[in-house]
Structures are given as structure tokens and as C-alpha cells.
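Late entry, evening session. Most of the bench is empty. Finally got around to the prediction I had been postponing all week. Sequence below, unchanged from the version circulated by S.P.
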Amino acid sequence: MSADDQGLSLADDLALRSDDELFELLSARPDLASPPPAGTGVLASRALAAASSALVGEDLDLLDVAVLEAIIGLGTGSSGRIPAPTSVDAVVAALSGRADDDEIIARVHHLRTRALVWGPDDAIVSGAHAPAALPWRAHHLTGPLARQTTEQLQARLDGLDERQRSLLETLSRGPALGRSRDAAPDADPDQPVARLIADGLLARVDSQTVELPPMVGQLLRGEPPLSTADLRRPALHDAAAKKRFSHAAIDAAAGGEAIELIRHTTTLIRALGATPAAVLRSGALGVRELRRLAKVTGLEQQRVAFVVELLAYLRLIDAGFPEPAPATDNGELAFAPTATVDAWLHHTPDRQWAALLGAWLDMPRRAWQVGEPDRDGNALAALSGELHDSYAPLQRRAILETLADATRSLPVGIDALVSALHWRHPRQMRRYPRRVVEETLREARELGVVAHTALTGVGRAAIDPGEPDNAESRLLSAMRVALPEPVDHFLAQADLTLTVPGPMTPDLAEQVDLVADLESGGAASVYRVSESSVRRALDAGRSSSELLTMFTAHSSTPVPQSLTYLIEDVARKHGQLRVGVASAFVRCEDATTLAAVLRSNAAEHLALRALAPTVAVSQADVREVIDRLREAGFAPAGEDSSGTLVDLRERGSRVSVTRARRQPQQRRPVASPEQLRSVISRMRSQDRAASARPAAADPSAAPVRASGGGESATALIQLALRVNRRLRVDYVDAQGSASRHVVTPRTLGAGQLIAMDAGSEEEQRFSLHRITSVELLES
């Protein structure tokens, strides 16, 4: 069968489609619209190209692939060369029993919409490069193993000898394609490759190439195998599955995870502010520093790595020279919080959560791989360039979108989720092994996107493709629903602990963090009040009466006497000594206390010198004087030149942001609907111009080449105006893009031609100096 016998070409098919059908095609295959094609003929050529077919193949699911395989196989026939027409009925018969007939017919229409096939139902044709849209080289969904169940495939594998199984396992671990002379049809049938081809466990691509069927490779790798005997969408859960948790319980679990993540993030920020982490030569955060941070914060090393990656992507931590320099500073680069971190620390929990979740969704990195061996056997470091993977954000969204197909609040198993992902994305099957799905779900649980193996309300809001302008408000609204209501009270206990039954309001959190230390976090946090924590509050300028008033106002239980005695006892000693700047001075109303200070070991170390019975000076700085005196058993307070107490709490080191935060890049340029409509209008104009017949009998109608809007072109336009004739105009716009139009001229003047487009009846304006050719057409 020759190409001429195939009937309607794709160019003819596209020319007959409506504007809405072309709009649907360009929306599904945006690569065809850039740059704007010069007519439907050029559009067809692009759509038939192998590269474009491979690109659209990324969006095909397993049933799409099976239908396309059937069309290609039925059209190829015995010749194996030029695709011939087939019918929808033949495709339905070829896949009968493996999918519903209506679904098969719908998929033929789906492929036709995307211009992978075209023609009427009784003469469906595929392009010569349509196989490029398939996930594999051979036809595995219509091949000898297509109707085999998992049990039957496993039985075949169990019956192989050691040499055959070793060959298949080698292909399962690497690329599925292999080269062998034994792949030829006339090869020795006793060779392992030839025997595997005969058994259907290898597919022949050509005389020297074989391919491992994907379902065989999955069985050998221990993954949930692709079901090819039944091409229907796999269920994410059984029909009889019941909800174990309500929507509210799942969202509440998500809110609890978010509160815990925010608390851990805050703890890590403070730890890095107090002691910045060293930067490796590669620019990464080493395993040793990761272990140190895990020990300081009390978090698991994997958790620390995850939080560090999120903070670095948000540019809340960065490598730089910390200011002020910490005590351990060696003058080299270190990872420390940036100046922008203070703004994040003062955000409300929902906005903090939204920032962390947004970073995870867009971050082209795999934090869960930290600590795993690289190719050389060395552990992968946090913030290492080796963790970069531009496909990671797409994988996360694909996993969440697949979870969103499940009935809300019903649990979804890992194997069911992996099977659904492979069915939806057969071209990327190797990108969704069980390990990747498991680790992605674990990170999603830590971010409150998944809870109790179901997608949460926050997760659904995060991937909701609704109006982009309202995306942030929808997400924050879902987060506020999931987060527990902030409390403004606690329960003060006689053992000097404070039990907080939920997240605190920002005002209460600031006061409690100042006067108590966190002992255990969670939905109900426990803080402990100690002598050092009370002193910290007094150092910040709080008085004992202010602290007691705060406890009385916010405690749901009576303030224990033990807590009152502790605050009053510490306050009684606090501030008897006053330290200022001389480099530092020590002042005390009680001469006996100052005399005791001068007799202590601290006085010798600080080189204290008495100026009066109640005043002494030192060359050491204020911070060191206070620390030494506290080590000696005294309770000094800092003051400024006016005698007012100053807050001496450590704020931590900060670094300047040296790099702008990276913005996620779209894999493909996406044109707006208005732009696509403009492209279609331009194609129609080109088609009309190409099919228009020139007025060849009229000598004055010969095409005129206009260089810069010459007089001859102007004269021809004026002629068309007088006799009301149409023109074919070749035009180059300001961007250098050439186009051809059929127009009816209306006005000529001021260096412009104003004309009506012959098809759309829209007014067009052409600058005369950009017109390259003018031709008079038949009326």
C-alpha cells in the first residue's frame, strides 16, 4: 500500500477540524504552537515528528498505549512498513475482554484529538513515527505475554534455568534493551536469548536487539507487576474498604504533624544560630555536622537532613561568614540562619507551614537520600549537588494526584498506589519504584500532606488546579482548619512544669519560652521552670511581680507555692551586682557583696580593680564578666549607661543571603488561551492565502515584490481599492516572523494598509515597509 492509498492525510484532517478542535490539540501539545506554524500543513509535519510524538507520549496512560499499539499493529500488517488504515471495530476486537468497549472507543478519540492517529472510524491511520509515543520499543501490551496473569508469568520465570534467569536479571537492573546476535530469527534456537524470545520473556526489536517486557522486569525487581491482562484503571482500594478515620481526624493528625515540624524547624534554626555548621569543600553539609545537630536538637538524623534541605531551599539558612562570630568561629564559611529567618519565625503557624510545604513541592532535590552511599561508596551529604533531581517535584505531584483519585479518607496501600502510578505513567515506570513512593509518602506525612495513608485536606488544596489567584488563600484556609486552635492558658504544676494543651498564641508562646524550657513537644507540650530559666526572664528585663502576674493570668490551675518561692528567691539575688561598660564595670549597693566578688577566683581571671567600696572595673567585655561571675555563684544583671536593665539573651549568628531563591521552572512553555487562539487564526489565514487563486489573466495582477513598501506594491494596493479586489499579502512583523494573508483592502495612508481579513472579517493593519509581496486575487 502506498502513501497515496491511505486516503486522508493528517494535514487534510487538521484543515477540516474546527477552531475548537485545533485549540484542544494545541492545549494538549503546546510544543506544536511554538513558533506559530505557517498553516495546518506545517502543523501536521510537526505533529508527525518523532520528537513531538515522544513528548505527547508522556501523557498517555496504559490503556492509551494499548490502543495505540493495536492501531499501529493492525495498520502495519505483514509488510511492516507504511502504516495502513484500520477500523475502530478492529481495535475493539483486538483488546476485547481486557477493557470496556466504550473506554477503548473513547481512547481512540483521545489519540485522534492529539493527532497521534486520524481519519474516520472505518479508516484510522497512525503516523510513521507514532511508535515514538510508546513507552517501549516492542509491543508488549499486544504481544505474547499481554494476556498472562501475574501467577502465570511467575511460573514461567520459576521454570527458567540459571543462565536464562541471570540474563533477564541483568536487563531488569539496567536498561531494558540489550544487543545480541542471537536475536535474529534464524539464530540457533538452543541459545538462551533465542529460547527466551520463543517463550515470550524477551521481545525481538530487530535482528540484533531485544527488550525485556516491563512486567517481567518488575517481577524480577520485586515490585508490584503491571497488570496487562486487565487494562482497566486499577483500584486504589477494595470496594468493601471502610474508613478507619473521619475527615476531621485525618486533618487533625496533619495539623499535629505540622506543629511538630514547625517546632523542630525552629529548634534547628536556633541551634545553627548558636553554633553554625562547617561547610565542606564541595559546599555541602557533612555527616559529622549532621550528627552534631541531631545530638544538640534531640532529633533523628534523617529528620535534621530533611529540615535542613527545606530551610536551604527557602534561603532561611545559607553558607556565609556568621555575624556576630560565634565562639567556635575559625574564619571560614559556615551554614547559619540568614537575616530573613527572623521574619519567618514571627509568622503565624499556617504561613510557616505553607512556606515549608511549598518548598517541598517545588524543591528539585531528594532529602531522603542523605546518608545513602554514592557511586564511590561514600555517604551522600546534605545540601550536596548529587541530590539534585529536576524530576523530583513532578514525581511528588504525580504521587499526590494519584492519591487524590481515592475516595476521601480511605486508606491506600503502597502496592496499590505503585500499580496506579504505573498505569497512569507507563513511560515513567522506572521512576516510580516502591522505594521512591515510600520515601515520598514519609516526607508527605511529616509535612501533614498525608495522614493515616490518606490524602489530607491540606494535600488536596496544595494540588488543586483551581484558579491560581486563589491558590494561596485556599491552602491557608485548609491549614487553619487542620491546625488546632491556639490556647492562651497552661496548667502550672507543683513540680515546676507547665502543661500546654495545644499550640500557644504568639504572645503566650513568647512569654513561656522566656521563662521556661521545653521538656517534651507534641499536641500537649510540657515546659519546665528552673532557676536558670527564671534568671533568663529577669535578664530580659522582667521583674518578679511581672512573672507572677503572667503565671496568675494564664494558669488554669492555682499558681503553686513552689513556683512562687522559686521566682522570688531568684529575683532576690538577681541584680545585686550591676555590670556595665568600662570595658565593663561592676556596681553593687552592698559593699560586702562586692568585697566577696573581689576575693573570688573570678576577680583574678577578670582582673577586677576596685574604684570604690561599691564599684569595680574590668578590661573584659560585659558578656564575659557576667558569665564568670555566674560561674562563681553570683547573680549579676546587665545594665546600660543609664542604669536600665538590658536584655543579654543570645540572638544567634546570622549570614547575609548571597543567592536569590530559585524559582521552579516549567518543563514546557505554556501558552495562554489567547495566544493559542491567535496562533489558530494565523494558521487559518496562511491556509486561505495558500489556497487562493491569483488573477493570472490580468497583467496588472502579477505578484509584486515590495522592498520596503515600493511604489509598485502601493500601486497594486490602490488598484485593488478601486476595483474592490482581494490581495494576497506576504508580511514580516516586528519580531521577524513571516506570514501570508488574504485581505480586502479598505484604507491606504500614513504608511499603513488597513484591510479586512478574508476569513475572520477582522480588521488588520500592515506597515507598508514590512510588506514583502503583494498579489491580486480573483474576485
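Two things to note before I forget:
Confidence is low (pLDDT under 50) at residues 1-6.
The longest strand covers residues 738-749.
Will write this up properly tomorrow.
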